[in-house]
Amino acid sequence: MAKKPTTAEKRRMAASAARRRQISGTLEEWRASAFDNALRQFDAAARRMKLSDNQIAMIKLPRRITEAMLPIRMDDGNIRLFRAYRVQHNIARGPAKGGIRFHQDVNVDEVKALAFWMTYKCAVVGIPMGGAKGGVVVDPRTLSLGERERLSRRYIAEMIDLFGPDRDVPAPDVNTGPQVMTWMMDTYSMHKHDYIPGVITGKPIELGGSEGRKTATSLGVAFCVERAAEQVGLELKGATAAVQGFGNVGSFAALFLHQRGVRVTGICDVDGAFHDPEGIDVRAALDHTAKHGSLKGFKGGKSLKDGSKVLELPVDILVPAALENVITADNADRIKARIVAEGANGPTTPEADEILAQKGVFVVPDILCNAGGVTVSYLEWVQNRMGYYWTEERVNQDLKRIMDKAFDEVAATAKRFRCTMRIAAFIVGIKRVTEASEMRGLYA
Ligand code: NAD
């Protein structure tokens, strides 16, 4: 049985419920606390590892925070300034790696948290890169195509010394995609008078993007679910699953689970939620979103009024693949799944984490579960540097090898330290970053 929430937890629950109600509005409250949450996760692992103060000093906080004001000439001739950030959290293990987000609610605290998670995500899956993240405070829906291009190019031009294939390699994030990556790569290449595709990942295939990148995060989630099912003794064939979010990660995660014999009984996105105990036709849902842009109007199942109820369906596997902070002290007790596979970044609050652990739910934490995306980004960078490109089959084979190894290492660490998979993932990641940092020593 879960313990009753304290007053402080109730306050947090109320705040998180308020946040969930205003999902399309600002998420400032979460973003302000995102870095605190990240540091709490770090501290829980560091305590168990008995890290020294010097070790902590070297790896806990971001090493470089850059803020710039980008002047952009708008289509009407006026010049507007856009606030932009790049946070490089740690580069002990290799060049910094992390996406660039265009969103009106971007703030430095959020970017710091996301950069922090990138450091440990890369370390958990053992790819030789550090952690970074970038953001521009802008609602891109308010920009024309030309304004978006000028903003993307100016971002790189303004901070050009930060970037480089051996320095810091950005990628897409919320509201940025292959086109933005192309403009950014072109700007960098023009400045350097060279063609340098390895400065950025998430490019279109025609310009050095990797086969398999589009589905990499979801395939990684599916590989983690296979391993988690073995851990809890669940037969995937005939098991049931619910997926929150039907975008890039959620839709393909649902498809990959379906392909493994799992009955996906609940799906939702921002426009609709559907439940069918007999199993939703996932391909029909994918076709519907391809045609209509969202699940709105989908006919394959009983429509649920409250999309957040998808999280509470009686299923074996739950994949949150939409937003941060959706599993909270408020609803964690009502989660019925035996496995929670975190496709999204930060879907579970620290309080909810404790409740799930008490209930014996097997949580595959985000820094492991959704690391398939950065793993194939790394493979894209490798291919760019060789100038030789692999088939999707080859990329997926490498992805599986890397994800399975990482899962097994985290599971073994969880056993050894008698801790959750989340703390274990941080222990694995922190150990690798600490070792690299100590081997390199302190310059000057
Ligand atoms: P996306 O924009 O393609 O999809 C997000 C989905 O969530 C959409 O279907 C949207 O409708 C849905 N959604 C939004 N609000 C919702 C709500 N209130 N209830 C239910 N659904 C809601 O984004 P994505 O790339 O699939 O990313 C999803 C999550 O996965 C994010 O947390 C992201 O940081 C994380 N992630 C993505 C990748 C990647 O490779 N795309 C890699 C690692 C982590």
Top keywords for this entry?
alpha/beta, seven-stranded mixed sheet, five-stranded mixed sheet, 14 helices, binds nicotinamide-adenine-dinucleotide
The helix/strand series, from N terminus to C terminus, equals HHHEEEHEHEHHEHEEHEEEHEHHHH
List the ligand species.
Answer: nicotinamide-adenine-dinucleotide
- Share of residues in strands: 15-25%
Number of strands: 12
Class of secondary structure makeup: alpha/beta
Low-confidence stretches: 15-26
Helix content: 40-55%
- Let me know the largest β-sheet: 7 strands, mixed
Which sequence of strands runs across the widest sheet?
A: 9-8-7-6-10-11-12
Radius of gyration: 21 Å
Number of helices: 14
Please state the average pLDDT score: 93
Overall body shape: globular
End-to-end separation in angstroms reads 54 Å
Describe this structure in words.
Helices cover 47% and strands 16% of the residues. It contains 14 helices and 12 strands. The chain has 444 residues and is an alpha/beta fold. Bound molecules: nicotinamide-adenine-dinucleotide (NAD). Nicotinamide-adenine-dinucleotide binds at residues 23, 217, 244-250, 268-270, 294, 307, 321-323, 343-345, 370, 373.
Task: Outline the secondary-structure elements.
Layout: H1 7-21, H2 28-49, H3 53-59, E1 64-73, E2 79-90, E3 96-103, H4 108-124, E4 130-137, H5 145-158, E5 168-172, H6 178-192, H7 213-232, E6 240-244, H8 248-259, E7 263-269, E8 272-275, H9 282-292, E9 302-303, E10 317-320, E11 339-341, H10 350-359, E12 362-364, H11 366-369, H12 372-386, H13 392-417, H14 421-440
Parallel strand pairs: 3-4, 3-5, 6-7, 6-10, 10-11, 11-12
Antiparallel strand pairs: 1-2, 2-4, 7-8, 8-9
Helix pairs in contact: 2-4, 2-14, 3-14, 4-14, 5-6, 7-8, 7-12, 7-13, 8-9, 12-13, 13-14
The site of nicotinamide-adenine-dinucleotide has 22 residues, from helix 8 and strand 7.
